[in-house]
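FAQ
Q: What does a multi-component entry look like?
A: The components come first, one per line:
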Amino acid sequence: MIALYIVAAIAVFAAVRVVAEQKTGRKLPYANVLNFAVAGTIVLLLDHPLSLVAAAAYFVGSTLEANAVASTYAGGVKR
Amino acid sequence: MLGELLHILAAAIISWILFVTVDILFKLPEAGGVSGASAIARDIEAGGGALAGGTMMGNIVCSPDASAGTLLAACGVYLAGIPGGLAAALMVFIGNRICHDPGYAGTSGAVLATFVVYAFTQVGFAATDFIAGMVIAILTIQGLSHTHASRLLDRLWRVRQ
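Then the predicted structure of the entire assembly, as tokens:
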């Protein structure tokens, strides 16, 4: 039970830091912490074998989004 | 309650050592896997951090690495024991390919973490301790001070070299 509260608190903390940080490149690591915390929260809240798939799908999806944001920030595809 | 907190703290330290060791062995600080990882590294360096450490942090953002592997393996072990952890490793592998990451840090980290977490569940730890522990561990690297975290990773990377 404490694990859930710790993970949820870290999610809120990371969300505040994402909003407070000005530079996009430095926002993303905070967003990464948020993704970890939300994936953990999904599993801790939903005690079901398929929660693993939900958490993994959420995590991979949000990582891919961070990847896309970072690559666009870096200048996008060079043609 | 205090016992659970201490377990979570111990699990955080174990997960931290596990994922940093695997990531550095797989040379994550060496080069950005995608252009976005290098851009994050440059921003961290501009803020007073170290480039190699920043590159590793950028790589962690852009693709599931050993830290993600450890988190999902702990989730898998919590829900379904060792098969759950190995299923998590498979999903990390698919995630790596989706994110254009040619490396195996995430998959190896997940497989290793499955057995580490399972071993600790046999000696009184709960798998949930490792879920919270891994979130605390990633917080210390990515969420507190990018400058200090990147310098620490840079120092560890130099030891590896």
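Q: Is there any commentary attached?
A: Sometimes. For this entry: The CA atoms of residues 6 and 60 of chain A lie 22 Å apart.
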